[in-house]
Design brief:
elongated, 3 strands, mainly alpha
Length: 435
């Protein structure tokens, strides 16, 4: 997979002396001499151009090779120790998922680098595997009018729970999935590959969760048979989003905004007209915050300065997809480290926000409802239910609806499911027969 990478000496730098392209040998030589930020960027992205086993072997070989100058040999080993420490301390997941790689590292440490034993032992004791939850995101296809009837009959709804309490639980659920994501899952658009559940399980779990909750919010509104109840349901969902926005759970905030901007909800003109002024103001502020104008300027400003948060994963995936359009290996066989640095910047932001802390108490009633009682409905079901709430008009897209749809980004993104919302695609009317 990495056969096109040159072994000849290639090094290209920019005006600030930052490496923009280099062969692997040159990158590894610079790794020993580099500052911590370069080491971190390299360790986040090296899988793009070399395997973990090959990298470890090259580092070990460089470490054990004697030079004619004993002082120089010790200097090289001291600098390489910094690289090994960073790999073990900050990127231990590489060894946690690969027993053979871990065995090679352990043998090296025991035979040549005893000073790393304490750090390695500490990482081993702290290591644990986190399983991915896909169960509640799987949908089972059903069809026919009886299915819609059953969806309308369902009695347990979000209105049974306080909006702030729901926001607490959604924040905990979103953050747990977000925290489990490993950097390797974000390489080369792994979340969109055929074997995505194997190579990017936690990203897939988060995408599935987004789509699941999006459907729940939409269902909560279109399942109400009277206008008064629909207005109340719409207000309740906005209240959930507003609470999440206050806690800096931007994943849930975007979920609310994009769910309410979907066709089944945005077309409900009479329902939107019934919103109280306060709810309308809250919606307008959230809409502005999530707007793609100037490349999501408002949201990104919060992303840069906020520490404790659940960021919106969809935008990270969009950024990584755009970066990935550039070649990893240049025409002369050098690693495009400018691209690697851009990838590392996105993943470093993810890792920084993964250190967030939320002290909300788990509410088993709400989490059980979210996990096990959400109706299995797709976009066609939601569209049909929406049409039964308010009849289709000759000019289906009202000015209000056009305003709502305008918050969706025009640039499509490959998603992991058929639901277009997570990918920020412009929504389309479901392909259903009109009655």
């Amino acid at each position: 997979a990495f056969g096109d990478v040159s072994d000849s000496d290639i090094l290209v730098s920019d005006k600030e002396s930052l490496i923009t392209a280099a062969d692997i040998g040159t990158l590894i030589r610079n790794l020993a001499e580099a500052k911590e930020d370069f080491i971190d960027q390299f360790l986040i992205t090296y899988r793009y151009f070399i395997t973990p086993k090959a990298l470890l072997n090259k580092l070990i070989l460089k470490y054990v090779t004697q030079t004619n100058d004993e002082a120089r040999t010790e200097e090289i080993r001291k600098k390489l120790t910094k690289v090994f420490r960073a790999w073990i301390k900050d990127h231990y997941y590489d060894f946690d998922v690969d027993p053979e790689l871990f065995s090679s590292l352990t043998n090296f440490v025991n035979e040549h680098a005893l000073h790393l034993q304490k750090l390695l032992s500490k990482q081993v004791s702290q290591s644990f595997r986190v399983g991915s939850d896909f169960g509640t995101a799987e949908k089972h296809a059903r069809s026919g009018s009886s299915r819609l009837f059953n969806l309308f009959k369902r009695k347990s709804t979000l209105s049974n729970f306080d909006a702030t309490a729901i926001a607490h639980q959604l924040t905990l659920l979103c953050f747990q999935r977000f925290k489990n994501i490993k950097p390797v899952e974000l390489h080369s658009q792994s979340w969109s590959k055929q074997n995505k559940q194997v190579i990017s399980p936690n990203v897939v779990a988060m995408v599935n969760h987004f789509n699941l909750i999006s459907n729940l919010f939409q269902y909560e509104i279109v399942s109400q048979r009277t206008l008064k109840k629909r207005v109340a349901a719409l207000q309740h969902v906005i209240n959930i989003g507003w609470a999440a926005y206050g806690y800096r759970d931007y994943e849930t905030t975007f979920t609310v905004v994009l769910s309410l901007a979907s066709f089944p909800i945005s077309r409900l003109a009479e329902t939107w007209k019934g919103l109280p002024t306060t709810s309308r103001q809250q919606w307008d502020l959230m809409e502005q915050f999530c707007h793609y104008k100037d490349n999501y300027k408002r949201y990104r400003s919060h992303l840069r300065k906020s520490v404790n948060m659940v960021p919106y994963m969809g935008l990270f995936l969009k950024d990584l997809t755009n970066i990935d359009e550039n070649d990893t290996i240049t025409s002369v066989g050098a690693v495009n480290f400018f691209k690697m640095r851009k990838v590392a910047q996105v993943i470093s932001t993810i890792q920084r926000t993964q250190q967030s802390i939320f002290n909300f108490q788990q509410n088993l009633k709400i989490t059980s409802f979210i996990s096990f009682e959400i109706p299995s409905c797709d976009e066609n079901d939601l569209w049909e239910m929406s049409l039964q709430c308010e009849k289709e008009t000759d000019t289906e897209r009202s000015p209000n609806q056009k305003k709502l749809l305008d918050i969706l980004a025009p640039t499509p993104l490959v998603t992991t499911s058929s639901n277009p919302i997570f990918g920020l695609n412009q929504p389309k009317s479901p392909n259903v027969k009109k009655k």
